[in-house]
Amino acid sequence: DAGVIQSPRHEVTEMGQEVTLRCKPISGHDYLFWYRQTMMRGLELLIYFNNNVPIDDSGMPEDRFSAKMPNASFSTLKIQPSEPRDSAVYFCASRPSGPSTDTQYFGPGTRLTVL
Amino acid sequence: LAKTTQPISMDSYEGQEVNITCSHNNIATNDYITWYQQFPSQGPRFIIQGYKTKVTNEVASLFIPADRKSSTLSLPRVSLSDTAVYYCLVGRVTDKLIFGTGTRLQVFP
């Protein structure tokens, strides 16, 4: 298995532009998570899905952020408009269902820089 | 979700055993203890998970005392490649994971 795939790996954009981050979870995994990591705030959970349905979006910082999961193999995190304080590494993770594990498998991350 | 407390940083030398202790005084009955490892420029990686007593895998051991209010991750004979941030997480299997600040382990030659 290729693991969790994220694209792009690096994104540099200007303030006010729309940014779309993409994630392909591991096949067969029912849960998908979006995290953001910065030096100041550490690793924060933004939102997670179960079977393509958003379960908890309480970590989404504001209305400029939105996430979708149109099918089991694809999710997007969109920031519109972007701001310099959104600069961070964004990770996507997935995990299978089942009571015996909560192991999450993380992607390589997307490093976002907003100028 | 139980709050965890772990040292901000630790230093070690190659070949030594490293023990990282995590405090979780308000752990609930159904909570598991999970450790993740994160290398620079990579996403966190699952290391080990346990509920009570001792768990061992090819990477580490996890020691959990009877009261479960703390846990210790043990890395035997560390190498330079073990330099990373180690996160202790506590929660039910179905809960979302909350990552704290972690422990930054630096291994020296």
* Helix-strand sequence of chain A: EEEEEEEEEEE
- Would you count the extended β strands of chain B for me? 9
Helicity level of chain A: under 10%
Oligomer: heterodimer
Rounded average pLDDT of chain A: 93
Rg of chain B is 13 Å
Give structural notes.
The complex is a heterodimer of chains A (115) and B (109). Chain A is globular, with a radius of gyration of 13 Å. In chain A, strand 5 (42-50) and strand 6 (53-56) form a beta hairpin. Chain A contains no helices and 11 strands. In chain A, the strands form 2 sheets. In chain A, strands 2, 4, 5, 6, 9, 10 and 11 form a 7-stranded mixed sheet that branches. Chain A is an all-beta fold and 115 residues long. Helix content of chain B is 0%, strand content 48%. Chain B has no helices and 9 strands. Chain B has strands spanning 9-13, 18-23, 32-38, 45-50, 53-56, 61-64, 70-75, 84-91, 103-108. The A-B interface holds A 4, 33, 35, 42-45, 48, 56, 91, 93, 99-109 and B 32, 34, 38, 41-46, 49, 87, 91, 93-102.
Task: Label this structure with key terms.
heterodimer; A: 115 residues; 11 strands; B: 9 strands
Write the layout of secondary structure elements.
The complex is a heterodimer of chains A (115) and B (109).
Chain A: E1 5-7, E2 10-13, E3 19-24, E4 31-38, E5 42-50, E6 53-56, E7 65-71, E8 74-79, E9 88-95, E10 105-106, E11 110-114
Parallel strand pairs in A: 2-11
Antiparallel strand pairs in A: 1-3, 3-8, 4-5, 4-9, 5-6, 7-8, 9-10, 9-11
Chain B: E1 9-13, E2 18-23, E3 32-38, E4 45-50, E5 53-56, E6 61-64, E7 70-75, E8 84-91, E9 103-108
Parallel strand pairs in B: 1-9
Antiparallel strand pairs in B: 2-7, 3-4, 3-8, 5-6, 6-7, 8-9
